[in-house]
Structures are given as structure tokens and as C-alpha cells.
Amino acid sequence: MSAVALDVSAVRARFSALSRPLVFFDGPGGTQVPDEVVEAIAGYLRKSNANLGGPFETSRRSDLLVGEARRAAGAFLGCGAEEVVFGANMTTLNFALSRAIGRELSAGDEIVVTKLDHDGNVAPWLELAQDLGLRVQFAELRDDTTIDLDHLESLLSERTRVVAFPWASNAVGTLVDVARIRELAHKVGALAWVDAVHSAPHAPIDVAAAGVDVLLCSPYKFYGPHLGLAFARAELLERWRPYKVRPAPERPLGARFETGTLPHELLAGLVAAVAYVRSVGFEAIVPYERELGERFLAGLPDSCTLHGLPSMDGRVPTFCVTIRGLTPAMAAERLAERGFAVWHGNYYAVEVFEHLGLRDGGLRVGIVHYNTADEVDRLLEALQVL
Ligand SMILES: Cc1ncc(COP(=O)(O)O)c(C=O)c1O
């Protein structure tokens, strides 16, 4: 991927939401959406609103839209349209898909998760374990917040059925060696089950190249609407028995795991979001975000402690900091008063904060490609005098 310059003014001009004074460093909790996504959602409701499968105009348009959304999602993930599953959000989809695979698991089977995960990729396995008598084990973190791959490997056995892990941490920004963990999982015949929610706005996903079996993400983290999106290999979607109502369609394969009527207007928004990301391009987004991340790290005042990797190598520009003399909640409150949107707490990354020994969680500064160098500088100034 060769680097391309990003025109941030042109990017920002596409987002009415960015025209107010509030500075958005809250992307990891959900990004703003460009106007074209807003228009696509409204346009569907104006012109195409209907259920599927009817002979009349709006229903036909809705059928076409859902097909288009599957193709757009497939293009975003690097899979076939039939391997796409839509849902309310990542968490709901993960409970659904884990329950589906649960029908072929039995007591004593093992699941490996990691201490870098959001609970959306942990709790579904803990609950399934409760129901079926499975054993869930956690791969440890190293001091630098990378996953201890030797420890992960030591947990694998011929009883391991799934290795669930994140592509990137929503708490500290650490990127994961997806190919290596997939390789380890496959060596023992386990599925590689990836939570790509946090990496999706920052780096391209190609499930075929990554060779993973299941991957989930959330379009509202990559400039789209509140929706969940999953990929599972066609063979798995064919084999697993879904919890579905009997008359609902069996094709395309992904539809077997979608319960009830889809949010068609949000699928219209997803199509627009995928087109938006493609129009900006990761070859522009990645180097630009790296530059802003480096600027943030270089200017971080002494009163702030960074938790996680110290440079932009091996991470996305999501930073966990604590500030001398202030709880994360107090710091977020003061920054809000000064016009900055940042999150505080553990953002459901339970084990990461246990590992860091931060009972009150952290302050999360999430940079995305619509942020500017000036916004980073203003945040650093604000942190200096907080
Ligand atoms: C890494 C990660 N995984 C999973 C989730 C859960 O996603 P959703 O809100 O779509 O259920 C989040 C949400 O913040 C996340 O950051």
C-alpha cells in the first residue's frame, strides 16, 4: 500500500457534524458520519421503504438494496456477499454466532480468548461455557499490552475449538498479529474468530488474505450507521444450524443467521459508508493517522502517563492515558467543558484494565482521519493545564 496525501479539509467538508466547535476524539465509541450516509438513510426512507419480496416498486427497490448492501459489505471485508451476516451490533451478532457453533460443541471443549479483548468477544464464550460445560482460557498480556503469543500457544490443545481475539484493542490501541494467531489456531484445528470492531476504521480488512474463519465489526465505528456486520466462511454458515423462524429464507447463506426484518435504511447507510471509506482510501488514512498519532505522542505533557505501546509501531492511534491528580472521569469532564469529546472508563475491555492495574479505567483519546493537527495541538494544550 503506497501512501497518498489526505486532504483533511476536503474530508471534513463532507461531514456537517464536524462543523460545530466540539472536537471529536471519541471515535472508538462511534465515529461521526458523512452527509452522504445521512442522505442515503433518509433517501431510502423517502423512496424505497418497504419489506422484502413483494412485486411492487418499493419492495423491489428494497430487495435490490439488501443485495447491494451484502456486496458492499463483502467488498469491505474481502469476502463473498453470501458470507455476510447483518445484525443489530457486534455484540448481538457474536452471541448469535457463538450460540450457533455451540450446537456442535460439548462439555470439555475449550475456547481461548485473550486479555486484550472487549467483552463482546469474551462474554458470549463465558455464557456458552456456562450452558455447555466448556472451558474458557485467557491468553495473557505482556507488559507492553501485546498478547503473549507463547502463552496463547501453550493454552491450545486438541480440545480447542475456537480462538477468539481482537484485531486491535479498543482500550490501548495495540494491533494484533492476526495471521500468526490464525496459524496457531488452525494448527490445532480451531477456528480463528476475530473482533475487528476497533481496527475497521484504521486499517483495511481482508478476511481471505488473513485466512480467518469468523470476523465481526460495527459500521458505526467506520463512518456508518449503528449496525453490526459479520463474516463467516460459507462452509460454516452452511453447516451450523441457525436459530431461525421456519419460513425465513435459507439463501443467501448469511441470511440464515439474521432474525426478522433487517434495518433497511441502515443498510443504505452502510453502502454509502463503504463508498465513503473507499473514496478516501486507507492508503491516505493510514499514513495520515500515523502522523497525527506521532504528533500526539511527541507532545504528551509530563503530567500524563501513556499506557500501551510508546510509538505508532504496532498500534492504531487510540491512546489510553491517566493524568496525575485526576481520575479519568474528572479529566473527561474537564475536557468536555473545554470542548473535547473523549471517553473515560474501561470501555468493556475488562481484562486490559485489570492488567494495567487501573481500577478507574483510563482516558481514551481516539484519533481518526477527520481529526486535524490543530485539534491534536489544542488537546495537548488543554491536557497541559488540566
Ligand atoms: C473492540 C470492540 N469490540 C466489540 C465492541 C462491541 O461492539 P457493538 O457496540 O457493535 O456491540 C466494541 C464497542 O465498543 C469494541 O470496541
Summary keywords:
binds pyridoxal-5'-phosphate; 386 residues; 7-stranded mixed beta sheet; Aspartate Aminotransferase, domain 1; alpha/beta; Aspartate Aminotransferase, domain 2; 2 domains; 4-stranded antiparallel beta sheet
CATH level-1 class of the largest domain: Alpha Beta
Give a quick account of the main beta sheet: strands, pairing sense, barrel closure. Answer: 7 strands, mixed
Quickly count the domains: 2
Portion of residues within helices: 25-40%
Query: Which architecture name of the largest domain does CATH use?
Result: 3-Layer(aba) Sandwich
CATH fold node name of the largest domain: Aspartate Aminotransferase, domain 2
Which H/E pattern describes the elements? HEHHEHEHEHEHEHEEHHHEEHEEHEH
Structural class: alpha/beta
Anisotropy-based shape: globular
Small molecules bound in the structure, each named once = pyridoxal-5'-phosphate
Radius of gyration, in Å, reads 21 Å
CATH superfamily of the largest domain: Type I PLP-dependent aspartate aminotransferase-like (Major domain)
**Beta-strand content:** 5-15%
End-to-end separation in angstroms reads 39 Å
Low-confidence stretches: none
Instruction: Output mean pLDDT.
Output: 98
Q: Could you explain how this protein is built, in words?
A:
With 386 residues, the protein is of the alpha/beta class. It folds into 2 domains: 8-25 and 281-385, Alpha-Beta Complex (Aspartate Aminotransferase, domain 1); 39-277, Type I PLP-dependent aspartate aminotransferase-like (Major domain) (Aspartate Aminotransferase, domain 2, 3-Layer(aba) Sandwich), CATH 3.40.640. The chain is 40% helix and 15% strand. The chain has helices at 8-12, 35-47, 57-77, 90-102, 123-132, 149-155, 178-187, 207-210, 234-239, 264-280, 282-299, 328-337, 350-356, 373-384, and strands spanning 23-24, 84-87, 110-114, 135-139, 160-166, 191-195, 214-217, 228-232, 304-307, 318-323, 340-341, 343-345, 362-366. α5 (123-132) links the parallel β3 (110-114) and β4 (135-139). It is globular. Pyridoxal-5'-phosphate is lined by residues 89-91, 118, 120, 166, 170, 195, 197-198, 218, 228.
